[in-house]
Amino acid sequence: EELAAGFATRIDGEHTALDLLVKTADLPSAGESLAGFGLATIFQNMAATNEQLRKEAFEGKEVTLEQYNEMQRMGKTEEEKEIMDKEKDIDTNELCRDRIRSMANANVPRALVSLTEGASEHTLEQLAMAMNRMAEEPTVRGVMIQQGVLSACIKIEKNEGPTETDVMKKVIRLARHCIAKMLITTNPSLLTSAQRLGSIRPLIQLVRDIKATDLQHFEALMAVTNVASSGEDAKNRIVTEKGIPSFHFAMFSDHEMVRRAATEA
């Protein structure tokens, strides 16, 4: 919160702490350094609520966050429960959206793109999470595309190969999902031809990804539908990338909204 609100080391300081983080990310070879991982982690934490971070920590575990919280309360006295309730987290989705807008105004998207150069898999994972979380806020998607996030995600996605690690698979899925989020609300005619056509393969691969969530399938289908509206070149590329059988596959999803989005696509 303090970073987003413009914290500076001195009252008369020329640069805020957030400005300095962005400047550090722009230094040559910053992505390859240990500092690159630290910067990426700060940015992705700023763009999430505490509740979201806690929920993610329980993904794939045998208990959910709600069950864990309930178990924590079971062993407490009434007095301890009252103290727990008073210490409730005050971070909200609205505060998080404000932070993301502040980050966009401070050129954080450009910093994230700079850090992808030469980054390790684990740094790339943090960067892809940061981009994905920022793309949750519709008002900053245009700025993100202008500062190179869409092109960077398309480039990351091209790293896919038969020998990739589990971390890299996650990075590629996050990059594809970030492309989907940005292109749901963006007018495709404002994109360059390379961006518009280059985004089609990642979106269709996300639709075909059996490990992706229903939300990821739904948003990828919505984005493809939007891109398809831009003209014949986009439609032809969708056909070339085996888009139509992918839409058929999604039309048999368990989730009604995924089926609807696939039919629309």
pLDDT averaged residue by residue: 90
Q: How many runs of DSSP E, i.e. beta strands?
A: 0
Radius of gyration (CA) equals 20 Å
Q: Distance between the terminal alpha carbons, to the nearest Å?
A: 40 Å
Query: Poorly predicted ranges (pLDDT <50, ≥5 residues)?
Result: none
Strand content: under 5%
| SS field, number of helical segments | 17
What is the element string, with H for helices and E for strands?
Answer: HHHHHHHHHHHHHHHHH
Largest sheet: none
Structural class: mainly alpha
Helix fraction bin: 55-70%
**Global geometry:** globular
Describe the overall structure:
With 265 residues, the protein is mostly helical. 66% of the residues lie in helices and 0% in strands. Helix 10 runs antiparallel to helix 11 and helix 16 packs antiparallel against helix 17. The model has no long low-confidence stretch (mean pLDDT 90).
Q: Quick gist of this model?
A:
This protein has about 260 residues and is mainly α.
What is the strand and helix layout of this fold?
Blueprint lengths: L16 H9 L8 H13 L3 H8 L7 H10 L3 H9 L6 H13 L2 H8 L5 H14 L6 H6 L2 H9 L8 H19 L8 H6 L1 H9 L5 H15 L3 H9 L2 H8 L5 H9 L1
Helix pairs in contact: 1-7, 2-8, 7-8, 8-11, 10-11, 11-13, 11-14, 13-14, 13-16, 14-17, 16-17
